[in-house]
């Protein structure tokens, strides 16, 4: 008599492959420890700025991008917008120190499915990653109810989400100006002419009611494009 074939054990699903982007190596190290301690999560790539994150997402096989909101060259929101266009199936979380409603709305518009505060990352980040993989939204406890209710109310009434003060291109130029780049350097980075950079810069000064680079830099710090 043939012995019964033992049941096959169910295959263990592969862990979620994570791209982690933050310009502070110590922060990346701490976040990586939190994520790699979980059997279903693994960090497979690290980036020090948004542009590097976009490049790595295109060259590496990743399921989820965890992006700091304030990074050199390209912010987490800018990177999220680019990744959403290039890889719509990629899940995105924004990791931030800013408890700010405007950033939350910008994160949603950029294609992120979650918004996690760095101050409680040890408590919330793992849950946020798992929610993102399930294609569920995550927002830190306490802000969740009010923010999502506001968002849904606006959507139901056909009202636009809060407008940004500047366009995406102006935001790119504002960030680079605040980081100290010259018009020529900005033109080279964005593949536009220095004259076009100057025109955008003049528009920014007029639109924001500011006079010079110093005031633009203060504004960029205030809205989280660069860190002080």
UniProtKB/TrEMBL annotation:
Sequence positions bearing 4-aspartylphosphate: 68
One Pfam family from the record: Response_reg
Keywords per UniProt: DNA-binding, Phosphoprotein, Transcription, Transcription regulation
Residues of the Response regulatory domain: 17-133
UniProt-listed InterPro entries: CheY-like_superfamily (IPR011006), NreC/VraR/RcsB-like_REC (IPR058245), Sig_transdc_resp-reg_C-effctor (IPR016032), Sig_transdc_resp-reg_receiver (IPR001789), Tscrpt_reg_LuxR_C (IPR000792), WalR-like (IPR039420)
Name of the protein this chain belongs to: Response regulator
Entry superkingdom: Bacteria
Residue span, HTH luxR-type domain: 159-224
